[in-house]
Amino acid sequence: MTTLGVFDSGVGGLSVLRELQKQLPTVSCVYVADSAFAPYGERDVATIQARAQTITTYLRLHHGIKALVIACNTATAHAVEAVRATHPDLPIIGVEPALKPAAAQTVSGHVGILATRGTLSSERFLRLRTQVESSSSRTVHFWPQACDGLADAIERNRLEEVQALGQRYMTSLFNAGPQAKNIDTIVLGCTHYPFALETLQSAALGHGVRFLETGLPVARRARELLVPMMPPEPEPGLVLPPTLFSTGDATGLSGAAQRWIDPKLFAHTVSI
User: Fold this and answer.
1) Is-contact 261 18, C-beta < 8 A?
2) Which of 64, 71, 76, 199 is the most exposed place for a label (fewest CB within 10 A)?
3) Claim to verify: residue 128 and residue 154 sit in the same structural domain
């Protein structure tokens, strides 16, 4: 059996996990929510790197994973290169804001980016933005918006707070400058944010925007890597449920997984 490790600071990576389940139903996914240290977007770089290394080692030693998905934009931005250096034999897939697809799809040439402050300030994000801006066949203006507290509100299922913060940051985004009203594409640069999509869409009514997330591209990349490692003829109709762990109270992860993936899922607490 092929096992894939997936981790995030909390429940946000479930937006990636549900796409992985669709693309790789016969792969055993082990998901770790580092809830005891969430949200990563408000942690220092050294802590994020240390947690990424600890969780990766745990997944390899205790679950024998064949590949790893870092289902967190902030952890990818600050730790994926260090984890790859420590585990050079392990295929590792990170997530990053979908700036390249957004640049290709925008009609107006104005793209909003909703992300954590940690992601937006990272060298990896700045390199990605520079690369996309320089390689685009036309001028694309990116409008970054740091969404302090939004991931944490989603993590804790505080619906009124999610709505208030979503409205605040969308308003701030469209008022960021004279041309910001022309934004027609918005990148969800945090894996938590797809779970606030209805709120964000409601706040964008009248602006005619499309939202881009990263779950499906990541899942497709994981499929490319794992299919060669899988048995040639998996059992017909087999769908393996994910195994879920939380480094904090597992109740929140269980509830989120039941809401967004499968009502029969439950998470367990793990001390790592």
Assistant:
1) yes
2) 64
3) yes
**Structural domain tally of the chain?**
2
76-115 pLDDT, tens per residue?
999 999 999 999 999 999 998 999 999 999 999 999 999 9
Q: Is the pTM of this model over 0.85?
A: yes
Q: Are residues 115 and 208 in the same domain?
A: yes
Determine contact, residues 75/93, Cβ cutoff 8 Å: no
pLDDT digits (tens, 9 = 90+) for 48-66: 999 999 999 999 999 999 9
Domain of residue 163: give its range: 99-212
Is 74 flagged in the annotation as binding? Answer: yes
- Residue 128: which CATH number? 3.40.50.1860
Q: What value does the CA radius of gyration of the chain take, rounded to a whole number of Å?
A: 18
**Is 29 considered catalytic here?**
no
Q: Which of 27, 79, 183, 190 is catalytic?
A: 190
Instruction: Provide φ and ψ at 209, rounded to 5°.
Output: -105, 160
Catalytic residue among 16, 69, 72, 79: 72
**Arithmetic mean of pLDDT, 159-164:** 96
Whether residues 132 and 237 fall in one domain: no
